Model the fold of this input.
Amino acid sequence: MLKLITEVLTTVFLLLFLNLSMFAQEYRVQIAAFTEQVPFTHFLFSGVNDIYANVDQNEINRYYLSENFYSSQDAEEARKILVKRGFNNAQIIDMVKEKSLCTANDPAAEQGAIYTNINTEHLYIRHFYFGFSESKLSPSSKKELNKIFLKLKRNPHLRATVQGHTDASGSAEFNLALSIRRARTARNYLVAKGIHSGRIDVKVFGESTPVAINISVDGTDEPDGRKYNRRVVVVLTDQYGEVVNDVERMRDVPGHLRINKQTLRQQLIYAGLRR
Done:
């Protein structure tokens, strides 16, 4: 009888555990994000340790608490502590929601990559696309740059970092020069609107940081992927270089075109063969 009761209780506890696990929410807390890498002492001096860092698709350096949280309340308490210690842009990331937003074949769902969908004003990181071998702004790009201009005009402490990128067509030298022209086009547009050039930094990457595949698995050209790599990224930061009040990621690249560990290696081999 005692053995039967023990088995029943064990089964009940297992069922309760499984039910709780099914509804458990996993949250991550981003401490801060920067356009340039910062030393870990930047956080240690503020009493924040046990952190990890990664670099996202737009070369933004992101720093997170190593601990994951299983309730929004616990994550919010951690965020409040970070704010008190000077990290005013600390953000909570709901990983369950993130994975639900990924398509079935999205590598982000398998690799635990973070593609947040926080309901803030998604203006602090913007992407502008270009035609093949072009550096001319489209009407839609100008419309979005006008929004960035207004944000910079109303907030004199903010700065802009303009990044230039290309796909992998042509030589590395040509693509580097093309990424320069694209970045300068966006910067010059903001300067012509009235933003002082001293508030705008330019970084160029050529073809080195694709967000989508340039070639398919069988080695054929992938024009649908290339168009996402022909881009300029504009990031707004505060006077300390920290990305302000947003954890926006590049969501518009379809899952089957995104770069993952396997496809990145493939793209690099392809680039090497062209040299």
Summary: The CA atoms of residues 3 and 28 lie 42 Å apart. The chain has two domains: 24-111, 125-273. The chain has nine helices and eight strands.
